[in-house]
User: What shape does this take?
Amino acid sequence: MTQAPATDAVQKERSMILQKEMIADHYKQLEHVAETGRKVVYTFVPGNLNELIRCFDNLLPVHPEINALQNGMRKRTGKFILDAEKQGHSEDVCTYVKADIGMLRAGNIGPAGTKLPNPDLLLLSYTGCFTFMKWFELLREEYKAPVAMLHTPYQGDGTISDHMRNYMVKQLREEVIPKLEQISGQKFDIDKLREMLARSREAENDLVAVLESAKHRPSPIDAYFGGVYYIGPIFSAFRGTAGAVEYYRALREEVEARVAAGKGPITPDGELKEEKYRLVVEGPPNWTSFREFWKMFYDEGAVVVASSYSKVGGLYDQGFRHDPEHPLETLADYCFGCYTNLNLPSRVALLSKYVQEFHADAFLINSIKSCNSFSAGQLLILREVEERTGIAGGFIESDLVDPRYFSGANIKNRLESYFQMIMQKSKGAA
Amino acid sequence: MKLYVGIDLGSTTTKAVVMQDGNVILGKGITNSRSNYDTACAIAKSEAFIDTRFTLFHQALEAMPGLSLDLETFLQDLEASFRLQQFLNQLEYLAEVSIGEAQSARYRKVSAPLAERLNAIFSSIAGQAPEMFGVGSIKRSEFFRDLAGNTYMRLASELAEPDAVPYDLLVNIYDKSIIKVENKLLDLTFESNIAKALKRVFAANRALSKADQQTVQRCADEVTATELDVVNSVGTGYGRARLPFPKEQIRSEILCHGLGAHYMYANTATVLDIGGQDTKAIQVDRDGIVTSFQMNDRCAAGCGRDLGYIADELNLGVQELGPLAMQSNRSVRINSTCTVFAGAELRERLNNGERREDILQGLHRAIILRAMSLLARSGGVSDEFTFTGGVANNEAAVNALKGLIEENYGRRTINISPNSIFTGAVGAALFAQKTDAPAAVH
Amino acid sequence: MVLDELVDYCQRLYEDLDFRSVQAWKAAQPGRKAIGYMPIYVPREIIHATGMLPVGLMGGDMEIIRGDAYYQSYICHIPRSTIELGVSGRLDMLDGVIFPSICDVIRNLSGMWKLMFKDKYSKYLDLPQNFMPNVGGDFYVDELRSMAGDLQALSGVEVTNARLLESIRLYNRNRALVNALYDLRAAEPWRVPTVELYLLLRAGNVLPVEEHTELLQTYRALLDTAQRPQLDNSRIVLTGAFCEQPPLGLIRTIERAGCYIVEDDFVLGSRWIQGPVAETGDALANLVSAYLERSVANASVYIADKPKGESLVKACRHRCGEGVIFCAASFCDPALLDQPMLAHAVEAAGIPYTEFKYSENTGQFQVIKEQTGTFSDSLKLWGTT
Amino acid sequence: MTIAAGIDVGTSAVKVAIFQTGPGTETRLAGRVDRLLRRNPLAVAEESFLAALGSAGLDKEQVDYIATTGEGDLVEWRRGHFYTMTTHARGAKYLVPEATAALDVGALHARAIHMDERAKVLQYRMTSQCASGSGQFLENIARYLGVTLEDVGTLSLDSQQSEKISSICAVLAETDVINFVSRGIAPGNILRGIHESMAGRYVRLLKAANAAGTVAITGGLSKDVGLVGALNRAAEEQKMTLTTVAHPEAIMAGAYGAALWGAFRHDALQEKRSA
Ligand SMILES: Nc1ncnc2c1ncn2[C@@H]1O[C@H](COP(=O)(O)OP(=O)(O)O)[C@@H](O)[C@H]1O
Ligand SMILES: Nc1ncnc2c1ncn2[C@@H]1O[C@H](COP(=O)(O)OP(=O)(O)O)[C@@H](O)[C@H]1O
Ligand code: SF4
Ligand code: SF4
Ligand code: SF4
Assistant: This one.
């Protein structure tokens, strides 16, 4: 998700270049921790505490999920997963974990081709998914690194109560911050955190403007396939940094220009000429055949106008912003609000709202074999959203990074049938 | 005459439907799918045209004043005779290929006794053929492969001798030859075979008046000469991507089944199609437009092919399974989730002394249970419900389905057409009428 | 009652997916209410203290007709059977359902329940993964208090400290009897077949605790009258089956393939707290500290300070197990992700192991029989290294 | 001297062996294979056993221990039962003394067995409830292609190219095969493709069972030279150092193993009794 499309045919926009540089620089810093003496904190995307990590200026974050997905795009994960399975990992479980373990066994060479440093701390904030907990238990065995655990309670009732928030703040104070201080050897400075949070907020505003632009017809962006690039910096190592602020400002300007020009989204094969279908998509994409998968959509003139996947690292479009006035509480609220930490009724409501507000004529679920957090319950989501919006939904199945579970022909068959159905329906209604 | 053709190239069977302007079905044809898709299509289409000409023939005779014969009986006899003729043509070719095969170098040592056995087998089959096609006789299958194969295997096991011509060898010769026969386009058309068929019927039915014979012959000539002009064709089905059609003339089988079922029963809301390798649950709106669907994936368990495996295992034809299962009032729970393993489980259970009928009933129930879960996933069973695909011909499956629907969804009108297997092809033919693409079939 | 009758009775309870015993319990006294809960740990004491019947829901082996409509093929089985029970009306006698935090599947099921059974009480009970008394402990007290408040409103019975202490006492007694049976089975496994022990535990899901305690006592007494020969079997510790339960046939298959199961994690919730909960003082606080300090090690809770697998190795040694069978539900992420770590620990301790998966409706045990048989063959022919 | 019989009741054939063992010696007295072909396996087991006794010139009473394996636990007149992997390991060791692993490929299941020098099973993996890549599947395809089982191996081995099967399902793969035939692909290439897909699975099984070194292939498909060739290629591709050995009598491995373990058990019990 942090890699810019690299098709030569497409002219590189400034934002793409900025993002590329930002990431390259980050990997470079990781490569040189031995010399610079910086410490490395492994952590996850949903509910990440990037500002908190970054206010210790000798700490660098690494996101195993992003390594896994990047390796997926580079078609390295098939082998990693097999290796992990050979080590006794089950076929049935999350392939992100197995891709990570496999990479580690193969020498921990990251997606950028450089060796990743071992963690000095495993910051386990496992918002919205139990597998994260298992993942770091596994890494703890591998690296013998200390773990700082941040348990985010689930929004079982669809609300955040004070006792949930207090629990989080206490964990931050008594567990997370002390461990960060210990690893970094630096004292926690709450004012520095406030500064970071203020910058986060700025970037968040711009990101929301970008996502909202899809309400235009034609939509200037694809909020799923393109979206995964847009959310890259803010969901990972860069939220709260000046680089992210700059990136999102540039991105927003570009998108606004496209709106003004009445242009559609950019795809790997150039600009989309005709917007035939407007989709809302639920569920993560497949990474191992990302391009092939995307092509199945733009070849049919289908544009994703809103997606839940672009909310796994925070639901900014629903109003949440990091708040420098209440630094720890805001981190807690951020964690509570990540998409998969919402209960099913809230997810249904949100998706239905997207369908309506973004004037979508199709609703598609890409169900991921790996991910119970997303997938368990999606068939009910499908039905509920259909009922509330009156739109016929579509359902396809694939996996994140396990190439064995991406059956191109099958998905194409289903998508084709689905689009034909939508077309026939709109004609029939006319 | 302006016609539209729909072709459904399924995993097990290939179906074709010929439709006239105004959505009237004139003819249907079916054959088993085989390695050569073009051949399978051509045969299904040729069969549909034969059926079309029979329809026209029927219409023409009906319009004839002064015919004294009993038209229905006569046409039944004629059709049986026609089928027999087709069978004999194919059998002749099969014999030729088999005997040729027997002369190949690898069988040199046994070529003489082998040829003798083969000759005996084929003349015996030919001898039995008229009885197989007699009106009212129960056939194990409609397809040459199975019809000839069944008899062949039976005769082979009688005539085989372990030390001279072993059974396996005879089986192997058949396996090799049948592919060649199947992939050769023999001329089985109405035009070329009706004369012989008529001759046989006239000969058998001495009571037929000369005048009637003449009228019949005249109508037959007329029908033979009628130009059948195909305006547009649409293909669908599992193998649709390999049909020799341009993309505009191909439709997803889901849409076709939806539309086809709507055509057959206008109030259809839910469609279940169980074919050889896939099962689809489809919801349609008042216009027959699909609103949601589910289908099985990557695993063929619970589809029609299960029945095929079991039929092979029991040395029966698929048609015979349903009636057998209906003789049971106790269904054994089948645990295998795999088509291939179901055969092994069947063997195991038979050895444990369970009754064949009970196991079969359990197996039908297991297939339907899978379908029920797809139905549930697609949005349940609404009124009216239409069951399509080959398995809808199977009474035990239908019975299990009816029970489970009533238990879980309450009373529903359940439609099953005798033509259910053609639903996809009907839908395709309707699409052919809707779109105005030119007839670009090669 | 003779032993066979008692076991039969338990088996009937186990097979009764209409929960007739619960219906009968409710009918016996107007106004009675019952609360269902999903597997693993829920403090049943609180439900009991409101006079309601806690009913353990553990899916079941049944024809799934509508449950599959809610789950893809790659999700474990128990949520679909639970939904099947729900949509077919077989859970109508429940006045609410509690979904403890076990995994993402159960967590999401709690929301599905809210969507599907809108007018029934349902609660997602978050168990803390932080075990500091002032952090996780405080949070848990709040969670329990809020749940107790809900249950109080539902039942109209106030959860007083005294009532709760009384419930704690009853459940302590019950747990002690269960533990004693486990001890006996480990000492003389031929006397306590696991199939029976399992059925007895399952009876505890639907019977009032008082009745179940009596049943356990009767069973224990009857065991002394039974003549059961000792077989040349190997001693096995089974782990991984803590949520979706294996079908009875599977447990039987393992025993028939030459294994004595001497430790397991079936129906784990009823043995979640190790040792008694304090019976005096602040009852809620007692439940909380029992949870924080004496929870059994399990894949659904985070284990901060001990190496993974330590408790499994310990249990294996304690029970004189000769080998470990990892036996988890297919697609059960918590169990299956834990497994490599546990296997590693077991291996390091020189204990042989084998593994397979099941689902609650597995009907074919051929492969499992073969695997278990080979495992016990090799333990028998060659012993522990 | 101990006389022991091993009876392997499989899904498609019954195998019987009779051994005479003494300190350091193992003499085979008889062995036979009978295909089931829709007959009751228990009845066939008894017939074959009696026939084997006959050819060994023995009486039933002279046999000290009758051991079954496979589905043989249903045989009532047996003394003991050993599970398939236990016996295949032993049989493989007997046939191929240098083997460190066995790969049993039967009609429905495949089993990879890693063993030590005493034929003790160390680790194993077997295929599950899905028949993709089983012997049965191969048999079906061979029939479809009109190729006899004897020819399957050589046809595949002699062909230069292979056609990759895309479907994992044995049933859907049949359709793949039909597609191939429709594209005019030679049966040899198709069989080679199937062999490769099967071999890929089997090598993964072996890998998962931590097997390396000399692998004795046992079970019905050990006769299939095409599969054995594909196995060697797949192992090479996956950089596994494997030497596969398909002993001509490998189909008997289960029966041999059962007989030999039976004798071992008999002696152990005798010892116990005399002690
Ligand atoms: N007359 C019949 N009686 C019972 N079953 C039948 C009959 N005809 C076909 N079938 C079943 O239908 C299946 C084929 O269905 P069909 O709809 O033709 O499938 P496809 O479209 O996939 O080729 C066969 O596998 C067989 O089980
Ligand atoms: N001569 C042969 N060449 C190739 N394959 C064979 C031959 N004989 C038997 N087979 C295969 O071996 C299988 C039977 O193997 P076997 O190990 O006896 O299985 P099981 O123990 O399950 O009965 C058959 O399905 C067939 O595919
Ligand atoms: S289960 Fe889903 S959310 Fe959890 S780690 Fe895997 S992919 Fe991420
Ligand atoms: S069986 Fe495992 S994955 Fe399924 S609900 Fe239970 S704990 Fe969760
Ligand atoms: S279980 Fe059987 S039917 Fe299903 S994929 Fe496997 S081989 Fe095919």
